[in-house]
Amino acid sequence: MGEFEPSASLRRLARINRDLVGTTIPNQPSSDQYSLFRRYLDARHGEGGMADMSVLDYSMMIEDSHIETRIVEYRRRGPDTAINGRGSGPLIALCLTDVLADGLSMVYSFFDPAMSDRSLGSFMILDHIARARALGLPYLYLGYWVEGSRKMDYKARFRPQERLMPTGWTRMDERSVP
């Protein structure tokens, strides 16, 4: 992660989303979160394995952890953001994040499907890179990536990276084939 330098398009993406602020909170579910989660699943993964998750299932996903887990909630910057560090207004995106000894792990993230044009998945990765660096952690784990999944291809933009392959961890840099 220390070698990562954002491309021009990722820098542009960060500028587009500079009106958003991420606030780290304990891993406790809320009705706002579940409402956003349902809208996201219904719009993006209606036929997926998580499509029938209930409020209880969601709560267990958020709370059931044996390691340090936090939520980063993203909202628009408000008039008090400079003072309190938090955004205001409706919840726009969320990332369930594990804090590990050597990095942050993005367990699951979702966002308002009406804002898909803002590439919020990529924006959350950029934000988590900054968070890991600020904590002095060398790694950011992007979670599962399924080759050929159009919905996960955005993760390949963040190079260099290592991927767990059948032969072990393999470094992928700008010249590597995805």
Word description of this protein:
- Helices cover 29% and strands 29% of the residues.
- It has a single domain, classed as Aminopeptidase (3-Layer(aba) Sandwich).
- It has 178 residues and is α+β, with helices and mostly antiparallel strands.
- It is globular, with a radius of gyration of 16 Å.
- The strands form two sheets. A five-stranded mixed sheet has the order 1-2-3-4-5, with helices on both faces. It has a two-stranded antiparallel ribbon with strand order 6-7.
Offer a few descriptive terms.
alpha+beta; 178 residues; globular; five-stranded mixed sheet; 29% strand; 29% helix; 5 helices; Aminopeptidase; two-stranded antiparallel sheet
